[in-house]
């Protein structure tokens, strides 16, 4: 791990050396022979990292070794073998200390620094390809907003989608969503992420070993059942939730939902089946749209106003300073 803030290693660690081959072909392999990228998002406490650990173990058991990337710079340790770890490139504590940032500001800045080197991650994924692994799993920070609404999060998501079949997985704590208001808040966030990323989307109702997820599925499929649950709450929030649920009814129609227990592994096969279906959707619906958008952007002449140019030049100077600091820290360490 780098000792100075922003001190990035010259290359990312890549411990994948096994030549294990899956016993049978996997439908999730995209048509161009490249791996499928699974972006795991979720609120703090939803069991996101535990889900990544269970999914990784499940794929190993199926002899389908995944490529796992940790994008959380603040986590103390990860319970899965990470092929690439952001903590090996950016020291989160030093970023907070040097720039006098709080926890969320430190995570955002660390992600920004990592995003400037994300081309190396792309090279690893492209070089390894589906011959070594079928899935690349990305574990994102627990503070979901610092990834979903940050420039670095958008850069990482768009970079992956431009080269690989990319699926967004939104993980919900089922045990904490038994209240209709809490459930609706979660689904609103899921809806906002879906329309922001414009990628195939899977909702994972996690912790089914604690609470069965069928109540949530029923709420999505039958508005009257959801309204009956809301009728027990006469607050202003329940009235607002009732209005929003009507708006989200169309959103539910095409939403893939899977109940999973990250503790027991129940539902993992169903989840991978949902991933297979999402990959087909990506190749047939999303990829053509992304390609047409790229062509349109390539043909249009980019125009920057004076303010944007200042921001661009400022960011370039910031990156140059960080590079010099990293080189200085490395010399001091070697000296």
Automatic annotation (TrEMBL):
CDD domains (UniProt xref): GPN1
Cellular compartment(s): Cytoplasm; Nucleus
Gene3D superfamilies found in the cross-reference section: P-loop containing nucleotide triphosphate hydrolases
Region: Disordered, residue numbers: 1-30, 286-335
Keyword DNA repair among UniProt keywords: no
Bias-annotated ranges (Acidic residues): 291-308
Any GO molecular function: GTPase activity
Keywords: Cytoplasm, GTP-binding, Hydrolase, Nucleotide-binding, Phosphoprotein
Gene Ontology, cellular component aspect: cytoplasm; nucleus
Family: Belongs to the GPN-loop GTPase family.
PANTHER family: GPN-LOOP GTPASE 1 (PTHR21231:SF8), XPA-BINDING PROTEIN 1-RELATED (PTHR21231)
Function: Small GTPase required for proper nuclear import of RNA polymerase II (RNAPII). May act at an RNAP assembly step prior to nuclear import.
Protein name: GPN-loop GTPase
Gene name for this UniProt entry: GPN1
